[in-house]
Amino acid sequence: MSDRAASTASAGPGAAAAPAAVPAARRGEGQGGRKSVVVFDYGFGNVRSAERAVARAGAEVEITGDYERAMAADGLLVPGVGAFAACMGGLKEARGDWVVERRLAGGRPVLGICVGMQILFEQGVEHGVRTDGMGEWPGTVEALEADVVPHMGWNTVEAAAGSRMFAGIDAAERFYFVHSYAARRWELEVHNPRITAPAVTWSTHGEPFVAAVENGPLWAAQFHPEKSGDAGALLLKNWIETL
Amino acid sequence: MTLAVRVIPCLDVDGGRVVKGVNFRNLRDAGDPVEMAKVYDAEGADELTFLDITASSGDRETTYEMVRRTAEQVFIPLTVGGGVRTVADVDRLLRAGADKVGVNTAAIARPELIREIAERFGRQVLVLSVDARRCGDGATTPSGFEVTTHGGRRGTGTDAVEWARQAAELGAGEILLNSMDADGTKDGYDTEMIAAVRKHVTVPVVASGGAGRLDHFPPAIDAGADAVLAASVFHFGDLRIGEVKETLRTAGCAVRGTPAPG
Fold it and tell me: Which terminus of chain A has fewer CB atoms gathered within 10 Å of its CB, N or C?
């Protein structure tokens, strides 16, 4: 895995063929210096809620499945609800997997939400069916073991040390979760001291699971910041500040 | 880390306006749903539920518009139920900005609808609303509770607990359990009914019907509910959401913090 944290400058030499080549006029930059965000519309996710919440947090937002627009935006938000296999299939059909890969290769921010986070892992297993995800991180998304599932409602998280995503957010704050599957283990080990290990935030419902990841330009949350009231708005603001 | 108990105000809406009736019959009008939703959000509501009782399907457009306006201004989960009959209805509500959709009568008529919705959108969007009452008038079911239709006026003879269990198996992500005996009485939730359903389903259970006083809420949670829903007590200002949460907190439940007063 490349060191994404060290390559966040989109105009870096390694990114020459990627989105940095898009003319400035087409880069979807927001009005009045606001950051531009594309909420990727591939038919899976409450794009409208995400759009409103990101706009409220201060960015210029567009809902589109157009890959050029998605490449050009300062930030790309990938929502996702429903089944892992269906979302992954839909994303591929819309070339969303390609967009995410290209953006990350250029160090350009991507935020995955709910199933939009789950499909970043290597695999998902639902009803015994194993589906390949994008493989940004090793590991499997599988059924959460708890007395009551789906895990539906407001829960606290144990934010990663030095997290930028949760900066300024009180530890007692709760976020809105709704899911039956999760990454129950974090399997990526980083031994190279020159590489910044991803910041992993956990939550617990029946058992611990990965609630959020910050990996250079790639951020992801299992919960729904767009539905998490003021705490969610603050988190989205933290993301927009990195764009 | 513990999942918080949810406190959910319910707004009954007709043609885009809020109404709430005692036992669903004697309706009183009380305002704009979007304004009400904003007030509840500010008071710390964990979710909002709209129950659309619009009779004419021709007026459904006002419902979608109301959902759209609400989702634009309120950043907590929104459930919309009432009159949902097809996968296409669910699709329209989700596109308008609903996070979850409540299904009731149409699923009783055709349980396969539950599976169809869950397969298309995931079970997390599907709330099965069960209007149940204690058996009487000759009807008997194994659990002693039966499913009703037509706002509780008509019994079906179907066992309410078995129906909830079956629906969860078919793909319902949550059960909204409304006691038609308790609804509008303000005498408290039917905790026996809640406990009976809790015993047989592993999806979240939302208790509904009968809330009248603060001390009615903790017993619903003790009986196994994951969330408590109420309409008129919030609507007419008898109880405030913050008070309910404080009562639950004192009773030992985890609740999402309420905003500072003022």
Answer: N
Please report whether residue A182 resides in a domain. yes
**Is A226 near chain B, with CB under 8 Å?**
yes
Question: Domain B6-250 is of which CATH architecture?
Answer: Alpha-Beta Barrel (3.20)
**Side-chain-facing half-sphere of B219: CA atoms under 13 Å:** 14
Q: Is A154 on the interface with B (CB under 8 A)?
A: yes
**pLDDT, position B259:** 46
Mean pLDDT lowest among A166-180, A183-197, A202-216, B50-64: B50-64
Portion 49-108 of B in contact with A at CB < 8 A: 68, 71-73, 75-77, 94-97, 99
Mapping DSSP to helix (H, G, I), strand (E, B) and coil, where does residue A203 land?
Answer: strand
Residue type, A187: E
Is A72 within the bounds of a domain? Answer: yes
Q: Quick check: A26 pLDDT over 80?
A: no
3-state SS of B1-48?
CCCCCEEEEEEEEECCEEEEEECCCEEEECCCHHHHHHHHHHHCCCCE
**What would the two tokens of residue B226 be?**
């994951």
Share of chain B above pLDDT 90, in %: 70
Quick check: A194 pLDDT over 80?
yes
Range of the domain at A159: 25-241
Residue numbers of B annotated as active site: 12, 131
Query: What are the domain boundaries of chain B?
Result: 6-250
ipTM: 0.92
Whether the predicted pLDDT of B129 surpasses 80: yes
Cβ of A152 within 8 Å of Cβ of B226? The answer is: yes
Q: Which residue has the higher pLDDT, A145 or B31?
A: A145
The pLDDT value recorded for residue A112 is 98
Query: Residue B75: its chain A contacts at CB < 8 A?
Result: 49, 52-53, 56, 226-230, 232-233
**What residues of B are in contact with residue A156 (Cβ under 8 Å)?**
1-2
**Position A2 in a domain:** no
Closest Cβ–Cβ partner in B4, B75, B97 for A229: B75
Task: Specify if A45 maps to a domain.
Answer: yes
Write b or e for each residue in A229-239: b if 16 or more Cβ atoms lie within 10 A of its Cβ, otherwise e: bebbbbbbbbb
Name the residue in chain B with its Cα closest to that of A44.
B121
